Predict the structure.
Amino acid sequence: MAKRAVVLLLLLFLIPTAQAAIELYDFSSEEKRVRFHELGAELRCPKCQNQSVIDSGSASAYDMRQELYQLLEEGYTDEEVFEHLKARFGEFILYKPPVRGDTWILWFLPPFLMLSGFVILVLLARSRQKQAPASQNDSVSERQLKLKKILELDSEKSSPSNSKDSS
Amino acid sequence: MKRALLFLPLIIFIGLGIFLYKGLSMDPSARDSALLNKPLPEFTLPRLDNEDLKVSREDLVGEVFLLNVWGSWCPTCYEEHDQLIRLAEEGVPVVGLNYKDERPKAFQYLAQQGNPYTLNLFEPDGVRALAFDLGVYGAPETFLIDKEGIVRYQLSGEVTPQLVDETILPEVRKWQNAQ
Amino acid sequence: MDILYLPELGQFALILALVMACVQALLPLAGSMTRQPLWLAYAQPAAWAQFALLTVSLVFLGVSFLVDDFSVAYVANNSNSALPWFYKLSAVWGAHEGSLLLWLWILAGWTFAVSFSRGLPAEVLARVLAVLGFVSIGMLLFVILTSNPFDRYLPQIPSDGADLNPLLQDPGLIFHPPLLYMGYVGFAVTFAFALAALWSGKLDTAWARWSRPWTSVAWAFLTCGIALGSWWAYYELGWGGWWFWDPVENASLLPWLLGTALMHSLAVTEKRGLFKSWTVLLAIATFSTSLMGFFLVRSGVLNSVHAFANDPDRGLFLLLLLGVTIGVSLLVYALRVPTLKARASYSLISKDVFLLANNVILVVATLTVLLGTVYPLLMDALNQGKISVGPPYFNALFVPLMLLLGVFMGLGPVSDWKSMRLDKLRKKIWLSGAISLLLGFILLPWVYDGSWSIWVALGLTLFFWVVTTSLRDIWEASRGKKGWRGISRSRWGMFGGHVGAALIVLGVTMVANYGEERDVRMAIGEPVKVKDYEFTLTQLGEREGPNFSADTATIEMRDREGRLYKTLTPEKRNYHVRGMPMTQVSIDWGPLKDIYVAMGEPVAEDAYAMRIHYKPFVRWIWWGAFIAGLAAILAVTDRRYKVRVPE
């Protein structure tokens, strides 16, 4: 409880801003400028209530941006940048969760569910299809033709036709 | 069999509910330091009281000490200051890291509140800084460093009397007695 | 100063509303169990009384705001004497307590509308109203016991209020919560129909027919509410983003995804009598996610910029409410849903299967968003540390799912119910497929930008695929006996909904891949070139608003020939009461692109850092959503429903 109060007090120092964080950096290459924005969007501001480093106007985000700029200018790769910041602030600041043992479910459950869902769907449809007699597969016009023929030949006989809507 | 399957959504929901219940008592913004059980980073910083004197990592490592990040702008620091004085009186070395502050204001703070610190490091910037390397993003934060210079405990927030009694002092003693 | 007693009356009205809700819920329940049909008749008047009382309550809260009654804590915390009157009114739903009252009022409103349903057996209607009554009881208890908007600050009445959060002082935010709540709460109606059907044990296609219009209208409102929120975030927050996968945003997306699945599933159940128990489960799940979102946003369990009150005590009450509502519904479902398989059959290539595929994809998408949103909580609860799950995760998993959904969105309308021959299907889609691949995969990416990217290709192809197949379907329908006039509104609704969705895909594809931003230094008189346009800062100034002061800038935008194209006026405001700085961006908007300018910090006497965004096709994201929403409303007005259109 005290911890919560303190965090809230700390947050007072983060004046909540709807201020885009716009500083001017002198990038040595266009590629670095683009990477700055891309990586910045993947880094979480350590102190904010869920904002990326590139979006937040807070002081801690400003520090992170400065550091990011320096790291990029010093030639760090994307991986190295993430490692450097992770070593200081923890995994918390990476918006992309790691792919490892305890995040397997996170990354692989959805694709697995997707596949199983489709497999079940196909199996379900197949089992239903077996129940249906072959005449189901005729189109409307074909069956109308058949019906017409049958009616012409023998007005007393009639075959069941499955009516079809196309809506 | 089919009927049993129909209970699956309910079971999943109950599971989720348990986690949400646990979540209510947790704080989503609190987190453990990334520096736990890792060495204190290298640094060389000027002292607060004399900017020509520099202190570096080797100067501090060797005995168990607390590193307290503070600033005159931080209200909670005022709240916890008594506890720091108490810790100092108990013989625990407390090194201060004056963070994003101005010297005159820091001096005034110490003059008014008392000075528990064996020495104070001065770091006005947030970038390429020890505070940044420690993953600090606000004040107060307190680190416990053991004889080998490894960070063994970290606290974001106020040092309360309860924490001193239940956690900090025992941890300090534990690492002081460790080999 | 006179103390008005309106807040006390408002509170009293709330309590009476609770009594009415109890009548509405319990009497039909008792009547159903003891076979007393007279008791069922109490549901309707109780619903009307509840609506009237809640209206009184809401109006009195609004009046308290308008007259600046700062003795009411909620007014003091969210208003200010300098606040413009329309924001004083929208402040009613600007924070936790008031927004709850709005939610309740909207629930009562929907219930009121449902009570006029014709074509339903009286006991079905009574049961539906009873279920809605139970939901109302739960929420009323929550408000009265933990979140009373009428609490007073007495005797120390503040002299002025803390002002409405400046972020909320915006026209978009006046409508965003009401539209959203119309959607969230609207799904309670389908939920009520589902539970009523389980209660009675009769799960037939009539149930689906009755539920469809309510579902579609709720969906329409939710779509518009979410789109409005996205648009608001775009122009108000200053960084040009329109979706951030923030937990609160995800909370609104969950019922939307399931609601979309529900709409389609209801169509199959109504037409073919299939998937009944699945549709019932979806109906329960949709409203459940809407309640769950409610919990996530207000309990402090997750970190979000949008989050309302971070109060764990309220969170506990909400969790109980959630647990009881969802738990009981799922239990009733498990115990009472019929397990007999429907007699109708279908083959692999059929509209039935394609719609089921739609459901599979949407449900997996829902689970993905839910998983990503609560995973940090799960990991933390299991002491596995703190991780963050953000846009990189969601984009990676969600986008492919939506692309796959797009494929079925094209196949669905042109396919036949029950069974279709492959060559017939092929005949219907080959031209659309060819055009889409040609334009989307091959031509347009090169034409637009001179380079090719797989995501652009996929997005554009899907856009053309959905549009061409929808056009084909409408064209074929127009060749029926009655021609164009014979096409039902329901069909036009489907057309509009799918084309709207395709437009969203178009907007997202273009803006995500071709959008650019530049941080530039702008000094007075020195032009800066961005993306074929020249921007020149001509003036810096200041102005005073009703409750803020602003630094203003005037920027002239000229095209390649030097002609003045548009004058943009971004500004940076400082709201006095809360001391909050805010950027007001200036946008030159149009169907093909937006140019968006945000003011940064001053870098010199007459120079500012500015961010200029280029956002191609971004408007289509919201226009597409609104088109889809309107189309859903259109579908509901189809003659075959014979129910009065609600609200």
